[in-house]
Write a structure and sequence with these properties.
Layout (H helix, E strand, L loop, with lengths): L7 E6 L7 H9 L4 E4 L8 E5 L2 E5 L12 E4 L4 E2 L1 H13 L8 E4 L3 E2 L2 H13 L9 H9 L12 H21 L8 H15 L3 E2 L1 H10 L4 E8 L20 H7 L8 E7 L2 E3 L12 H10 L11 E3 L1 E2 H11 L3 E5 L9 E10 L2 E3 L6 H6 L1 E8 L16 H14 L3 E5 L7 E3 L2
Parallel strand pairs: 1-10, 1-11, 2-5, 2-10, 5-7, 6-8, 7-9, 11-15, 14-16, 15-19
Antiparallel strand pairs: 3-4, 12-13, 16-17, 16-18, 19-20
This protein binds inosinic acid.
Inosinic acid (IMP) binds next to helix 4 and strand 10.
């Protein structure tokens, strides 16, 4: 993907966020200088498998697993400082050297324990099926102009005063939401007082660092979290996350201008999954859906919840290609389909008696939309050892050709297993 005139790339999830971006970022990071996370927070779980070891990265960019790569947590991320340091410690325990390699934007907002209390209390009245990581309430505070940012830790006295006000408000809200738990100001002040000396040495104007890297022709990878259909503007609102997961969010959340970005790689599974509530038009509610879940190990990386499984939905991916401006596509988990006799692909919807190729706005029409399926023959052969397109059985190649045609975006990578080397790069 990186070439002389493509040095700043974005990688986004192009479905509901479980597509295996971690692996793609890991593969691309091998030739990157800088990897930047630009939105979301500890709701993400980017899985990377190296040998027998599995790493689940939540807030630290997946580039950390390549020794020479610098990692940046951008201003668009909502940072949970407790789990951030736990994650760093887990990486150290596995022998990953992180010292001097991680920079955190001083403009990134903090996710604090009171946000998690609000997230859980909110779920009781509005069942989104969140990860419970405090993401929504932290972004609410950000956009309500009452957030606490990493840079605020430089002045703990005024931050303690701010905390007092924020927690008073949070406790009033918790009362309104019928929660019995309350947040404590002293615990929060103690937490930040303890964390500040560890966090501040990593804090800087991250946008400036990313800008300089781009200006100097370094290879920069902007790593999205979640997927396009969870974008707060373009996703299946209100069953979305609270950030802009689409490529437009990459410039804002990394602190650079959109003209710095050269290409956008969208990651899709060869089928579709979703964790949490909300519409999933091509969901397979029969034994084949169960088979996809089993064969694909479809359980959320963060919450362990079973993922809902279904067929590839080309309407979703075409829409995602449009709102992200995808230049390239990566198809993951092709091997999960190896044993199926036939594989349905949703090519469009039938909506209120009409043929519909565009993704509708709103939950109601989506719930009425019936996928139009085309059934493709399976290949009934293991694909895990394929390293070139020509190693794949012809039915698998035909399947990929059809996905490419329906999505309208060229396929650049095909992943055929969890390991780093199980990838086909299409030149
Ligand atoms: P939140 O981001 O925790 O507020 O959750 C909102 C919705 O996004 C829920 O349906 C979650 O299951 C989903 N979600 C959040 N993060 C991820 C992710 O990284 N992958 C897949 N789904 C996610």
């Amino acid at each position: 993907m990186f070439t002389a005139d493509r040095s700043c790339l974005v990688v986004v999830g192009a479905q509901w966020g479980d597509e295996g971006k971690g692996k793609l970022v890991d593969v691309l990071a091998e030739s990157a200088d800088l990897v930047v996370r630009y939105q979301g927070g500890a709701n993400a779980g980017h899985t990377v498998v190296i040998g027998d070891e599995q790493f689940i990265l939540q807030q630290i960019p997946s580039g950390i697993l390549h020794p020479g790569v610098q990692c940046v947590v951008g201003n668009g991320v909502v940072l949970d400082p407790i789990t951030f340091f736990e994650e760093l410690e887990r990486l150290h325990a596995k022998g990953v050297i992180t010292e001097g390699r991680v920079l955190v934007s001083d403009r990134a907002h903090l996710v604090l324990p009171y946000h998690k209390l609000l997230d859980k209390a909110g779920e009781k009245s509005q069942k989104i099926g969140t990860t419970g990581r405090g993401i929504g309430p932290a972004y609410e505070d950000k956009y309500g102009r009452r957030g606490i940012r990493v840079g605020d830790l430089r002045n703990l006295e005024s931050t303690a005063k701010m905390l007092g006000e924020r927690i008073e408000r949070a406790n009033a809200l918790l009362g309104m939401l019928g929660a019995t738990e309350r947040a404590g100001v002293d615990e929060h002040v103690a937490l930040l007082t303890k964390l500040a000396p560890r966090l501040l040495p990593l804090a800087a104007d991250a946008g400036l660092a990313v800008h300089r890297a781009v200006r100097d022709g370094k290879r920069v990878l902007l790593e999205g979290a979640q997927g396009a259909l969870l974008d707060v503007d373009h996703g299946t609102y209100p069953f979305v996350t609270s950030s802009n997961t689409t490529a437009g969010g990459a410039a804002v959340g990394a602190g650079i201008g959109p003209t710095a970005i050269d290409a956008v790689l969208g990651v899709v599974k060869a089928y579709t999954t979703r964790v949490g509530n909300g519409p999933l038009p091509t969901e397979a509610l029969d034994e084949r859906g169960e088979a996809l879940r089993k064969l694909g190990g479809e359980f959320g990386a963060v919450t362990g919840r079973a993922r809902r499984c279904g067929w590839f939905d080309a309407t979703v991916v075409r829409y995602s290609a449009r709102v992200n401006g995808l230049s390239d596509l990566a198809v993951t988990k092709l091997d999960v389909l190896d044993t199926f006799d036939e594989i349905p692909v949703g090519t469009a919807y039938e909506l209120d008696g009409a043929h519909c190729e565009e993704f509708p706005t709103g939950i109601e029409p989506l719930e009425r939309a019936k996928p139009v399926y085309e059934v493709l023959p399976g290949w009934k052969t293991s694909t895990g050892a394929a390293r070139k397109l020509t190693d794949l059985p012809s039915a698998a190649r035909a399947y990929l050709d059809r996905l490419e045609e329906l999505a309208g975006v060229p396929i650049r990578y095909v992943s055929v297993g969890t390991r780093r080397d199980q990838i086909i790069s299409v030149e």
